[in-house]
Specification:
The complex is a heterodimer.
Chain A (H helix, E strand, L loop, with lengths): L1 H29 L26 E6 L2 E9 L2 E3 L3 E3 L3 E9 L4 E4 L6 E4 L5 E7 L3 E6 L12 E6 L1
Chain B lengths: L1 H10 L2 H4 L3 H32 L11 H32 L5 H26 L17 H31 L7 H31 L8 H29 L1 H4 L7 H14 L16 H13 L1 H21 L7 H4 L6 H24 L1 H7 L3 H31 L5 H30 L15 H4 L2 H30 L27 H25 L12
Helix pairs in contact in B: 3-4, 3-5, 3-19, 4-5, 4-6, 4-7, 4-16, 5-6, 6-7, 7-8, 7-10, 8-16, 10-12, 10-20, 14-16, 14-17, 16-17, 16-19, 17-19
Classes of the chains: A alpha+beta, B mainly alpha.
């Protein structure tokens, strides 16, 4: 009796895990919802001399499509206080000039690690107007709590 | 008669003499360090909670990140490691009829090395030379002495590993054809994990020492981070394995029952040992430079650890039901009432087990690619490990104290102390529900972890987090009260409780149980499988990180 129950318990619970994996896999590989995993490197000591980071800023790349080339450093974002129109599809292209930082916009699914030597990319479509808070969510030094900026969508 | 008495003394001296005082001294020394660390770490925890809630302002000579680094190091590393070693060495001594004198020496060498290491690391933190947090991600560069201190801690752990391996091997040689006692089996498993867990981080630290001294110009930050999590998450499962050793072996005896199938228990241990190390990758799900297919493989590797946990959940509740019914519990849930809820030795680990249901569910969220992106580096994660480590593991440890310490000190657990233990358990549980609960919720709202102040100039997105941060402070206050009671209880039982003999509550198998098969003892094979899983998980990404590495990073100090 107990043996049978144990078998059922294991089959059902492992089955749930398998279903879970299938959903995650489908979302990642079929729907393009996978976590930010860009693979491109840069010399962390020559960020400002290397394209595209020699010219950080907000660039329109298509119809309501934007690319934000951004440098993270202790304790700020360049460019900061970004503005984009409602419905803009924005791709952030980021790297760090010094230590490891995090790039998070609360209220959205934007959350990515930004590390020296690596270029990270993450995209988001801003459908709702508003003033979004941007924060660094990885400890980067004594001023970490001050490392924030905003994205205004209007 | 005289002959048989002599025989008993030789075969099982504990039966007549209790614990060997030399072995007890080893364990009690480790436990003393554990609870002193808990007290300091706990005070620092409350300081953080109050600072974060904006209720206090730290003086200029002490900053939040120093406090956080010390809190993490003292509780996550020093408290858990010293408690585990004290407890497991007591188990080993009990199960194998005493430690070999040589092994006792290893334990003392380990003790001294760890104390030296911790003293070095903590001194650097206090001097504000190492505000790099528990994870010390390069290129944040601490003072070289901080890293050298960590090396000493690891050497101390390795000395303890060597001691366990020697004693285990000695017993095996002298008992051919017998399976080792369950307690010794668990101890062996934990120290095998300790050894393989610390290899990654040791390599990392050895690369950071010359780099922090300026002898090497740059370091590979991605490889460092990956090697850290090889250790960091395995450590989590070391705690977990230590906790379940108490669930499987002691809890059934305390409630008056028998332990679950010996074979299943050993199978769970083997699975935890073999599958463990790759779990670390789910800390890097939103990192650059690791492909989505590798990350997906690691979702599988992390979730596979859920399998032995599910087996444990079934086994434990089966033991509870079986025992409760044997004691006369009727109906669907009547057996629950028959469990000794008023016995702290049961109540504390029971709450620990229940909280693991929530902890495990949260863990599945953390390891799932897309969900991880929502909660990564938010307070959710802090809430998660306060319910897993802070309740599932720590309450189990607290529960163990109420029989282990009197046993080692040849004293007794008084009803009054039991009552204090119950009160402690309730305060701890309520404190953690408030703190960890509010951390989970506010994490979903985006509140970041490891940040001293999250007002962000009064931005409206951050304003909603403040009430929850007040709750952290309330929870942390209760938890510090819990720490103080626990530390008092531990030292009272160690030095002042009435003298007497306390039982070592080891559960027996069911009468009709089949003995565990000998193949479970093939540690060589389990280690080969462990290495195979590690290779599957790590070879591709680490080779990629090294071959396609960017120019490295110089040491940077941003505090």
């Amino acid at each position: 009796m107990q043996h049978r129950l144990e078998e059922m318990w294991m089959i059902v619970s492992v089955g749930i895990l398998v279903v879970f994996m299938i959903i995650i896999g489908y979302q990642t590989f079929a729907m393009g919802m996978g976590p930010p995993s860009h693979s491109e490197t840069i010399d962390p000591q020559k960020v400002e001399e290397t394209a595209p980071f020699d010219e950080p800023g907000v660039f329109e790349t298509g119809e309501n499509k934007y690319e934000v080339v951004m440098i993270l450093q202790s304790f700020g974002f360049t460019p900061s206080n970004i503005e984009v129109p409602v419905g803009a599809e924005v791709e952030f292209v980021m790297t760090s000039k010094d230590v490891t930082h995090g790039f998070q916009v609360p209220g959205t699914n934007i959350n990515a690690m930004v590390m020296p030597g690596h270029i990270q990319k993450i995209s988001h479509t801003f459908d709702e107007p508003g003033n979004y808070l941007v924060i660094c969510n990885e400890y980067c030094g004594i001023g970490h709590q001050a490392m924030s900026t905003t994205i205004t969508v209007k | 008669m005289e002959q048989s008495l002599k025989e008993t003394i030789r075969q099982d001296p504990k039966k007549i003499l209790g614990v060997n005082p030399l072995d007890a001294k080893v364990s009690l020394s480790y436990l003393t360090v554990a609870f002193v660390s808990l007290l300091i770490g706990g005070i620092l925890g409350l300081v953080q909670g109050l600072e974060r809630a904006g209720l206090i302002d730290l003086p200029s000579w002490l900053n939040y990140y120093q406090v956080l680094t010390a809190h993490g190091l003292l509780l996550l590393l020093v408290f858990t490691a010293t408690f585990s070693i004290g407890y497991l060495y007591a188990n080993l001594s009990h199960a194998l009829g005493g430690l070999l004198p040589k092994v006792r020496k290893f334990a003392w060498v380990g003790f001294v090395l760890m104390i030296i290491g911790v003293a070095m690391a903590v001194t650097m933190i206090v001097l504000n030379e190492a505000s790099v947090l528990y994870t010390f991600y390069p290129p944040l560069a601490a003072h070289p002495i901080f890293y050298i201190g960590l090396v000493f801690v690891v050497l101390g752990i390795w000395a303890c590993c060597a001691g366990v391996f020697i004693n285990y091997r000695h017993w095996r040689k002298n008992h051919p054809g017998q399976v080792t006692p369950l307690l010794a089996y668990f101890t062996m498993a934990v120290f095998v994990l300790w050894f393989f867990a610390t290899i990654g981080v040791t390599i990392e630290v050895f690369t950071l020492i010359p780099w922090s001294m300026g002898l090497v110009e740059t370091t590979n930050v991605m490889v460092g981070r990956t090697l850290f999590w090889w250790f960091g998450h395995t450590l989590v499962n070391i705690w977990y394995l230590v906790a379940i050793s108490a669930w499987y072996v002691f809890v059934p005896k305390i409630i008056g029952g028998r332990h679950f199938s010996d074979k299943l228990i050993r199978l769970v241990v083997i699975l935890v040992v073999v599958l463990n190390i790759p779990g670390g990758f789910h800390h890097q799900i939103i990192d650059p430079a690791i492909s989505q297919s590798i990350k997906f493989l690691h979702v599988f590797m992390s979730l596979s650890i859920a399998v032995p946990s599910l087996m444990t959940a079934f086994a434990m509740f089966a033991v509870f039901e079986r025992t409760g019914r044997k004691l006369g519990g009727k109906g669907l849930l009547g057996w629950l009432k028959k469990l000794p809820w008023g016995d702290v030795r049961f109540l504390a680990p029971m709450i620990a087990m229940i909280s693991f249901i929530f902890g495990g569910a949260g863990g599945i969220v953390n390891t799932s690619n897309q969900l991880n992106q929502v909660i990564h580096n938010t307070m959710w994660v802090v809430g998660h490990f306060h319910i897993t480590v802070g309740v599932s593991v720590v309450l189990t440890f607290f529960g163990i104290c109420y029989w282990l310490i009197p046993y080692l000190a040849k004293r007794k657990l008084t009803p009054k102390m039991n009552k204090l233990g119950i009160i402690q358990t309730v305060i701890w549980t309520v404190g953690m529900i408030i703190m960890s609960g509010s951390m989970h919720i506010v994490g979903l709202l985006g509140d970041p972890r490891r940040t001293s102040d999250t007002t962000y100039g009064g931005h409206e997105a951050a304003a909603g987090w403040i009430p929850f941060e007040m709750l952290f402070a309330v929870g942390a206050t209760l938890l510090l009260i819990g720490v103080i009671i626990q530390v008092y209880a531990v030292f009272n039982m160690m030095f002042f409780a009435p003298k007497g003999l306390t039982e070592y509550p080891v559960a027996e198998p069911e009468d009709d149980a089949t003995p565990a098969p000998m193949w479970t003892e093939r540690w060589g094979l389990w280690i080969v499988l462990l290495l195979a899983v590690v290779a599957m998980a790590y070879v591709v990404p680490i080779v990629d990180m090294i071959l396609n590495a960017p120019p490295g990073s110089p040491p940077i100090r941003t505090w």
